[in-house]
Amino acid sequence: MRQRRIFGAALPLLGAAAFLLFLVFPLYWMLLTSFKGNSALFRIPPEWFPSEPVLSHYKKLFADNVFTTYYRNSLLVGFGSTAITLIAAMFAGYGFSRFEFRFKSLAMFSILSTQMLPVVSLLIALYTIYNGYGLLNTRTGLVIALTTASLPFSIWMIKVFFDNIPVALEESAKIDGASRFGILFRIVMPLTKPGIFSIGIYSFILSWDDFLYSLTLINKDELRTLNAGISIRYIGELSYDWASIMTVCVTSIVPISLLFLFFQKYMVSGLTAGAVKG
Amino acid sequence: MHKPVQLERRGVRLSEKAKDAIFLAVIICPAFILLLSTIGIPIVKSLYMSFFQVSLLSMKSQVWNSFDNYKQLFADGDFVHSIGVTFRYVFSVVAIQFVLGMALALILNGKIPFRRALRTVILIPWVVPTIIGALLWMWLFQPQYGVLNYILQSLHLIDQPLQWLSDMQLALWAVMLAALWKQLPFMVTMLLAGMQGIPGDMYEAATIDGASKRQQFLYITLPMLKNTIKTVTLIACIENFKMFPLFWIMTSGGPVDATTTLAIFSYKTAFIDLDLGKGAAIGALWLIIMLLFSWGYNRLFAIGEGKGGSAH
Is the pTM higher than 0.80? Predict the structure, then answer.
């Protein structure tokens, strides 16, 4: 009996440790590899702690203009699509939350089901359309494409936040003579800050994660984003330069991890609100 | 919306109702235009293109080829093969993810030290870009110097280093492992949020009635989580049906075609073989598969609903 109790208490701990190992160890290994010199890199048994960490991979990376260009493009595209998503999702989410109109549930449903569409269909048509309007190989084109990737779920998420704000507040402001946009900007939006944060972060993460759109819609090196750039420069070579690749990986994760550390609370609450209640 | 009568009598030119309608149209407009121009129109256009012979190099000339794109797809086995691979990948990765995610969520929902910190830490892989995850796992899987083979060999679980990504049998599972690493955190967080929404007194009442932990899980946790489970597994399925970067980076669909999913097959057809028409045809058939899938999915959870009703 006592043995069983000890076992029962230890099992969750062991389980948690195993999961932690699975989820965190690869990240540690990535960080470690980026500091390994070439002799340490291919040592068997591998070094579990850096005996003589080197910074040469990082120095090489930041001296590389191409890499900083990719990085800047990713940031620009990320901020651009986040800004547009925020505006469009906030307006639409407010409309869906506060007004009743015909085909509303159908509209909500179709917005969400766009997520199921095969990407290749969209890509093929976007490619030809962009080609006709001169949007291929432009950051604007990529930003628009990425916005629509994050827009559907963002509208759902922010709608849940609007739903939770009592309508009475707006009604009293209306009596005081505030315009509809005034109500939205001065009364409702400040109250939805957590929701706005979460969709902002969500769309930035999504855009930072994008690979397929930038791979397809951009084929000029100076306009490439980080993910597409990395794949084209480092993949498919005869011998992979693993330490450099891990260095790029670490560098690419930095902005997103910072966002995560600062806004973790909003991110989790936003996503769970959208998915669990929606 | 309820509004005071006084406002309407102020002699404004437009009625409040008309103003509401205009306001609504204005605020819905940006999202509507964006979605229409990058999703609505493209999907119709690509359905249309699937009936024509269109090459990436000569997009202007679209020649009707009397269903030739579709005929080709069914004539060579690649299309059917890629459907098989896709379904095998999606179902395995979502099922494993769900079971493990549930286990970890239960652990983190219990009394365990540092659970707040743990909840944060385990989320990190979720924000790591997919292609970074792919590269990271390629390094872990590296046959000679990869740490995974080393660990497995020193634990005497394997004798020979495994060729993770170039073995016909293993490659799909190796990609799944990387997918699991990236996706498990989201699953856990969602399930955990659902669990925390279950009122604690339900468990207390069950304990008083003498229900075991297992019974509590089966008759309280699972039914109460039903909607959450439906949503998160559906999100996971959709995400994995579309999964492109992991396969493209880790295996490019290989070895041979062992990991050629619909996403990889369609991309290769359209943008490597430059056959946009055939690629669009794959997309169209894929769309039909997705419609059938979501119909089946809703039916599946509707069956569960009937059961839940009769149990009460």
Answer: yes
